[in-house]
Every structure is written in structure tokens, then in C-alpha cells.
Amino acid sequence: MAYAHLDTAAGVAGSMTGVPHHLVRWTGLAGSVLLALSAFLGGALPSAPLRSSPVVIWQARYGPLVLIAWLVGTGLLAWAWWSLRNRELSPRWVLVTAALWVLPMAVAPPFGSRDVYAYACQGASFINGISPYEQGVSALPCPWLETMSYIWRDTPAPYGPLFVIIAGAVVGITDSLTASIVIFRVLCLLGVVATAYAVPPLARRCGVPVGRALWLVLACPLVAIHLVGGPHNDSLMIAPLVGGLAVVASNRGRRWPLLGGGVLLGLAVAVKVTSVVVVPFAVLAAVAGPITLRALFRDGLPVALGAAATMVGITFGGGLDFGWIGGLTTGGVAVAWTSPPTAVGQTVNSVAQLFGASIDAIPAARGVGVVLLAGTLVWMWFRAWHQDPLRYAGLALAVTVALASVVHPWYWTWPLAVIAATTVRSNWAALVALVSLFMILPDGIGLARYTKIPGAPLMTLALILGAVALVRMFRAEDRQRVEDRRRAEPATPS
């Protein structure tokens, strides 16, 4: 009865604000159904052509319907999510709505990516005694090699050891591509469910309305379209990441629970190692009271030890090594302006061509991006000593994605999941996620490949504006902190 009351209250509130909640729910569901239709007719099917383009898709038997269903479906789902991004919502209403939106994609063929076939092939390599960190899947050869994109067949796996072990177990149990895809999708769904449990305690600790945080994270169309529809293993990283932060935030100064929080963070790193950037901020968040070196050693060390021990234990326990570190560079074979450093390099190349020069500035731009990322993360960590480390954990993830050599739309679910639960100022993160929805066609073709101009210059401009906005935000926070400190000082007697 209480939940029914909450649902009713949510609907009334929606009507009062001009957008009835029931309209949002069913509009989003209609969009998800259209996207599932596009997946059935022209998704990333095993038999689909690997070399495709928007023109090739349009000329296919159901091509126009595939593209129209994709565009309209994405638009409806995007509008539905965006329209309630700042509303007070019932957590139960959000969970039911998000589940409805996920359902059509959960039963559709792979959508927007062929990564799930790479998961299966890497799992097959692992169970056949070939380290996916040393050789590409063509070395086995993988029995499903023809389903994989060409550029990933001879490159090492970029995933952490835990996911390689999981992939091997899935393939070993099923020995079937179709069954493996089903299990991978079930695992990704379980990751989404686990995230639904992890977000509320973190949001409460950070003073963020739980319903709003759940809406931004779970109802985000990237979850239904890519994390589930893909399916992508990112949900298996996000769940322990948010869960670990929630445990740390709820148990400051308590050694053994903090060790458990570190273990959860280690599990996230063991799926995708890029999540390691959150660990230093979690170490700061573990401190009860003012952050000092002594307090950091006392409270933060269990978090760091838990994460490190988990990562090392999984790596060697699975019979692997630290070859996954080298695998982090393999994603660079893809070139798309959705990566800001890559966009800068493409823009420089285009400008040079105007003057008759032929250069390749992309490697240099990516190298500068790595240096900037390292410097920015260190700078943010020291700032977090005097502010909210949990909020900075989300910003660190956002910067990590923004300065990566390759950025796929679903990568933005990483920072969004943390930012939505740790701060009420998350519209910018939601906007980035919204725009990225329209970058991938149902069969996995990235539109960035065909829109270098004006995509790369616009992304370069966006990078500059984003950096300026970030600096201005930090300066405003510094001024506010100085003002608050001045007001807190006792008045000097005359």
C-alpha cells in the first residue's frame, strides 16, 4: 500500500510539473520496443556483414525501417529520460520504469556492438591454454572468428583478469556461441540489478535524493541500449565500483568494513582496470575526521590493501599475469573523434592539409592526453583532501574517459553512475550521455567514422570549453571555501 501511494504521488507530481510520469514511462517503453525491432531486423547479428555503412544499411531489405526505428526509438527514449532528470521520484517507480525499458533490449539480438563475440572468443582462447593478453583470438583460432570485427582479431584482450576468467567459464560451460551470448547478457543484467542495490546507500550518504540518482543511472538509455542490449561487461565493473564506494562512505574509520569496500573496488578493477582511478579517492573517503597522513594510513590503508590484494589474487589465481597492462593500449587501433585527444589530432591533421602538409598528429595528441590525465588526476586528488573525495571520484572517472584514446558511448555510464549518486550537479554528465546515444547504429557502425568533419573540430572546441568550465568551477569552489572560512571566524573585538 505504501509503494502504491508513492507511485500515485509520483504521478501527481509529474502532472503538476507539466510532464505526466505515466507518459514518460510509456514513451520510453515505446522507444525501447522500436530499438529492439531495429536490432531484430538489422542488429549486430553473427551473420551480418562486418564491413557496412549507413548507405549499405539503407539499401538492405529492411534498411529504411531499421534506421527509422533506431532514430525514432533513440529519440523517444532520450526524451523520456531527460525530461525527468531533475525531478523528485519514487525509487520504486524508477525501478519499475527502468525494468520496462530494459526488457525489450534484454530479449533482442546484440545491438550496437560486436564486443560480445570478442568476449566469447577470448574465453575460448583462455580455456584452451592461450593467454588472451599475449596473443589475439586468431591464434586459437576462435571457432567464431568470423563474427568478430577484423581489427580485434589479432590484438590482446583489454579486459581485466576477472572478466577473462568469467568469459572462459561461460564458454567452457556452453561451448556454444548463442548460449554464451545469452549468459553474457544475463550476467550484464545481474550487474545492473546489483547497481540498483548499490546506488541508494551511496546517494543517502552524499545527500542526493535516491529516486533521482536511480533515475539518472538505471533509466539512462545507455543502460538499456548498450550495457544490456550490447551486451557490455561495463555493468560488471560499475556494480562493485559503486558498491565499494557505498561501503567506504558508510564505514569511515572502521577497518574491516573498509577492507571489504576495498575488495569490491578490486573486483571492479579486475573487470576493467580503468576503474583503478577511483581507488585513491576512496582511500581519502575512508578517513573519519580531518584528513592527515596518520589518518590516511590508519583508515585508507585497508581500502588500498583490499583492492590490491583482490586484483593480485585474481590475476595469479586464474593462472594469468599482468599482461593486461599492455592490453590497455590495444584500443588505440580504433580512430574516432569521440575521443577528445584523437579529435584534436584529427583537427590538426585537417588544418595541416589546408596548407599542403601531410602529418599524423593523432599519436602525439593521444600522448599529450595521457600526460594531461596523469597530471589532472594527481591535482584532483590533492584537492579532494579538503573537499568531498566521493564527488572527485566521479570527476576522476569523467576525466579518464574524456582523455582516453578511444571513447565508446557506453563508457560514459562509468562516471555517470558515480556522479549521479554523489552530487546533485550532474546535468552536464547526463547531457554527454544523451548526445552519445546517437553515435552508434544498430549493427555497431559508429557514425564518427563518417563525420570526421565537423565532428573532430566540434569535439576539439568542446574539449577546450570543458576544460575552461572545469577550471572555473574549481575556482568558484575555492572562493566559496575562503568566504565560508571568513564567515566562520569569530569577530575581532574593537
Element order: H for helix, E for strand: HHHHHHHHHHHHHHHHHHHHH
Strand content: under 5%
Structural class: mainly alpha
User: What is the CA–CA distance across the termini?
Assistant: 62 Å
Largest sheet: none
Q: Would you tell me the overall average pLDDT?
A: 90
Give the beta-strand count.
0
Shape: globular
Which key phrases capture this entry?
globular, disordered N terminus, 21 helices, single chain, 494 residues, mainly alpha
What's the topology here?
Layout: H1 2-16, H2 21-42, H3 54-59, H4 63-83, H5 91-106, H6 115-127, H7 161-174, H8 177-205, H9 210-218, H10 221-228, H11 234-250, H12 255-271, H13 279-285, H14 293-317, H15 324-327, H16 340-354, H17 362-383, H18 389-402, H19 413-422, H20 427-436, H21 452-488
Structural notes for this entry:
- Keywords: Glycosyltransferase, Membrane, Transferase, Transmembrane, Transmembrane helix.
- Belongs to the MptA/B family.
- Residues 1-17 have low confidence and may be disordered.
- The longest helix is centred in the last third of the chain and has 37 residues, at 452-488.
- The chain has one domain (21-469).
- The protein has 494 residues and is an all-alpha fold.
- It is 67% helix and 0% strand.
- It has helices spanning 2-16, 21-42, 54-59, 63-83, 91-106, 115-127, 161-174, 177-205, 210-218, 221-228, 234-250, 255-271, 279-285, 293-317, 324-327, 340-354, 362-383, 389-402, 413-422, 427-436, 452-488.
- The N and C termini lie far apart (62 Å).
